Amino acid sequence: MMEAIWSLLGVVLGFVLAEGAQWLKRHRLRIRLRKSLVAELQSIIRMVPSKVDVLNQAESHFKAERVMPTQSTRFPRDIYSRIIIETPEILKEWERDCLHIIHERLRVVDNSMDSMEERFISITSSYSREQAISAAVGSIDDLRGALSKTSELAQSVIFGERVDVYALGNEN
To answer: Does this model's pTM top 0.85?
Structure first.
């Protein structure tokens, strides 16, 4: 009888130790991912001024009736993607919403900047050069605005300041 109790106790203890080790491993992963997410958002915030500078230069070139390549280093999104896939529960609902908006805007900015020269050439083939310049400058203004709002959202996530991203659209 005593042998059966010790055997059962050994099984229970083994189970508790295994579960505890798994919990500790998940907890450490969550902490690492949160720290990595903050670092990724800080990198994004630091990249915004250089993106805006490229856009400003492109605007000057377009206004001078010249074309400038606007391709640049893409914004990082690796940690955000990993969290959404592996551990979305570490994010509060408002953080998930903010991060989705941030990373979707960054994707659009990157894609728009990568194809701006090509779009400009395409527009000039169908419309006047003035119309193409006006469209390019309008696009640049939109991208700068998106970058500005994105930096604000990134800072809100870093500092844990709740933002309702769906209410932001109603402010304008």
So the answer is: no
